[in-house]
């Protein structure tokens, strides 16, 4: 039978229980194989209970000292009960100087103490008892997170100035650099907000008119890495030129914000082929504009498109790619069966083949095809090829060469490009 003898009823601070007549300290720490919190107990005495009840600082120090033993138990191992019991007298009953000396010899969980208000400077000097004079029952985990991220930055040689810190808080990346940045003006000291907004304005001017397109080859929500890199370089250069005092972390968070917002704008827009939509039919290949096409992938899936439908061929094709493209499905084809021509995209190799029928198969003979290969410059290059083919067929692809029928020559060109 288990009963709670003493609890602070705040967060995860360990409780004292009585189990089968024996006093024990009970604490939750770590997780099991199913990611459920683990609970550990070990015996304590009445004298230990008195200190735990009356002295918050010693209670927290004991918790900090025991936590590494819990973590060492892993997902299913037992707590080293003997080691835990051995900490009781030195932490709870010893003079402050001896406690300080103990904490210089053992592993302990500093973040727990910082979250509960410990003086960080005193902790760093090894004066753990003095550091806990300002301890509170309530925890502030953000304070502990800030300590750890500041230490990691210091290990990289990064020292944030007031404006650097304000920019990271504005984007929500001060504590979690991998999170998607957002605009959070309320998180910034009002005195620094005008300066932050000047930096943001510099970045916005640097990328005005730029966009980050979608890259259906990597899924429905993926964006063009080249567009992203281009915008990053433009914003980084402008911000560094206007604000040379900023460290890399803060410049990076501003460019990340601009790119993320541009990506979101692209994802919220309908998928259309800009070049195809802009053409009124009178330009390149206007009279040869496709009216019926077939889209296929490397898995045998097929989709038909008719010009009488509600969407352009480019939009329908890239939707088809976004839904089906995968690591084992990177070859897609657009075919005009009526004209006997098509274009095949090899996304794994940034290359393309255009196929035209030279001679129809008659009397049981196989048709004769002309296959020409060319390299493609990223998703933007693929989009141009799709648009040109829809407007004018294989003949409209001539400007996007050079094209070659020599497979060996093409492979040499592809390997040379990849090497550079």
Mean pLDDT: 90
Number of DSSP strands?
A: 10
- Apparent shape: elongated
Strand order across the biggest sheet? Answer: 6-5-7-8-9-10
Q: N-to-C terminal Cα separation, in Å?
A: 72 Å
Radius of gyration over alpha carbons?
A: 33 Å
Structure description:
It contains 16 helices and ten strands. Residues 274-286 have low confidence and may be disordered. A hairpin with a 5-residue loop joins strand 3 and strand 4 (37-43). The strands form two sheets. It has a six-stranded antiparallel β-sheet. It has a four-stranded antiparallel β-sheet with strand order 1-2-3-4. It has 420 residues and is an alpha+beta fold. It has helices spanning 46-54, 56-72, 81-93, 96-103, 110-115, 120-124, 128-131, 141-155, 162-170, 193-206, 225-242, 248-268, 274-278, 313-324, 378-392, 407-419; strands at 2-6, 15-19, 22-31, 37-43, 292-297, 302-306, 331-336, 341-346, 351-359, 368-375. Helices cover 44% and strands 16% of the residues.
Summarize this structure as a short list of keywords or feature phrases.
single chain; 420 residues; alpha+beta; 6-stranded antiparallel β-sheet; 4-stranded antiparallel β-sheet; 16 helices
